Amino acid sequence: MAAGNAGSAGREGRGWSLLALALLFAAEFVWFDTQTSRHFTWIYPRWNDQIQYLTESYTGFEYLKAHGFWAGLRATLVNPSAQGTLHDFGAVLLFCVAGPSRGAALALNLFALIAWQAALFVAVRRGTNSRPLAWAALALPLALRWAWSAAPGSAVDFRLDHLALCALGATLACALLTRGFRATGWSAVFGAATGFTLLTRFLTGTYFTLILLGLVIWILSGDHRLRRLGNLALAVVIAAALAGPFFWINRDWVWNYYMIGHFTGPESAIRNPNMGLSASIAWVWHHLSQNHLGPVFWWLAGAGTTLLALGFRRDRAPSPAVRSPGSDWWVPGALFLAAPALILTLHQQKSEIVVGALAPGAVVLVLALWAQVLPRQRFPWAPALLAAGCLAATGTTFVLRQLPPAGDAGFQAAARKVNALADYIYLRSQAAGLKNPRVGVDQVTDSLDGQVLRVICYERKQDWVPFIMTLPTGIMEADEALIMERLANSDFIFLTEGGSNGNWPYDRQLRALLPKTQAWCDAHLKLVERFEIFGRRMVLYQRPEIP
Q1: What CA–CA distance (Å, rounded) separates 182 from 416?
Q2: Which among 513, 517, 539, 514 has a CA at the least distance from the CA of 528?
């Protein structure tokens, strides 16, 4: 009878937990969707990476409409890509439900975060049998600073960094569920999660190479080696079966982008800050601790550890109701932190955005510390207080960090000007019957070239106009004859008459050529408007025959 009552109480507790989780995740989604719609989706898609991934997603959806659901999804998976292949796949699925829009694309970022939170909750609940610690674990991803910074790679930027961060976090949670690869079923799930993460961002393959090597060494130094190695091998086979075909399809793109673009190509020298080893280590640590983890995370880690340490008694018998997973958490957490840290330290190019890949490992190491002291806790109220404090602090952070607008009044005025220019070019192109409007600009920009105008017009007009970007030709200097040829072949031209117009070699070259390019435009094109935008004085020209 008592056992039956206990089972009933357990099922009732799980039911309430599931309801609470559903309500929490729904609240997160509603708030995020409300704030992104208010502050970000009306602004042109800043940052060139986001423009690329939105272009791929909108192109995939248009292909789906033209050729059918399954053909469209297949196209998003086999479309050549150097960085990853699941962003447009996931976005197109959401477009089928909510329609194509920036808001629907950004929703994919939040769903990825929720998947990480849910995986952490399950892993901690099963690994420690502590419901309060599971709620505290679920809250920690909301404490991360970069996700709510409205910066490149944050949750309001549709690019691979945030998706890869969450995918790594969910995969690490699956690694915890394997109990050191003693559980065959969860090892298979870990393999599937690894394959999913590899497809989300191909670069994570370098991380997983080191992670798997570390896992093998760890397993060989412990017990049940054959069984655990077999389960790890099963995970590797599943991951390879999922990701391998797509890596093969994109092998040339990956090679050209990473090996040539990052190491041997001419652009690699421009992007290389030439840091020494010690400076590189300090750089990675600074961006991880200050920019990605941030003060709320460190405050919770310190306060939570202090709270649990106050009630920790080494001479106290561990509670049979709470488990400590020990090295089954410490080792995977350390490997998921150390592997990307080593890669990013040694990589000659530096981007503070990708340092977020280290955050899941840091989160799990904090949880491993808390789980280590929890069984010998003499204050029964301490875990509940820890969970309440984490939920309150991270929930407040989640809400407040999304309240500010994307920029000041000057930035918002400039963003509205970009929209107005996009509307003008779209309407004039339609009036002139231009099927492929050709747009050139004399600087590397994320706001006025043909690539971004294509996305802006699609989001504002729901019309996929295949704009052609005649200029710029890239970030490097180009042959002057080619530049003048591209200029002559453009339907619309933006020139920068004053102020900052960037510091790439192309920008400097076009700044020096301004007298020549402007004289040509004055002689052959029609001046439409002079305007100021983002601290630059610019002028728009168009072909005389365009009405």
Answers
A1: 57
A2: 539
Q: Are 161 and 153 in contact (CB under 8 A)?
A: yes
Question: What pLDDT, on a 0 to 100 scale, did the predictor assign at position 442?
Answer: 93
Q: Count Cβ atoms within 10 A of the Cβ of residue 11 and give its class: 0-12 exposed, 13-18 middle, 19 or more buried.
A: exposed
CA neighbor of 157 nearest in space, from 84, 50, 56: 50
Is residue 8 pLDDT above 70, yes or no? no
Region of 70 on the Ramachandran plot (φ > 0 left; ψ -120 to 50 alpha; else beta) = alpha
Nearest-CA neighbor of 65 among 41, 99, 90, 88? 99
**Beta bridge partner(s), residue 496:** 538
Q: What is the mean pLDDT of the chain?
A: 91
Question: What value, to the nearest 5°, has the Cα angle with vertex 173 and ends 191 and 144?
Answer: 130
pLDDT of residue 253: 78
Q: Give 472-517 pLDDT, tens digit per residue.
A: 998 889 999 999 999 999 999 999 998 877 788 999 999 999 999 9
Grouping H, G, I as helix, E, B as strand and the rest as coil, residue 532 is strand
Domain boundaries, the chain: 2-400, 409-542
First to last CA, the chain: 85
Work out the number of other CB atoms within 10 angstroms of the CB of residue 321: 9
Beta sheet of 536-542, edge-to-edge order:
468-469, 438-441, 492-499, 536-542, 526-533
Distance CA 45, CA 415 (A): 10
pLDDT per residue as tens digits for the range 47-80:
889 999 999 999 999 999 999 999 999 999 998 8
Percent of the chain with pLDDT over 70: 93
Alpha helices in 79-151 (DSSP H): 87-98, 102-128, 131-139
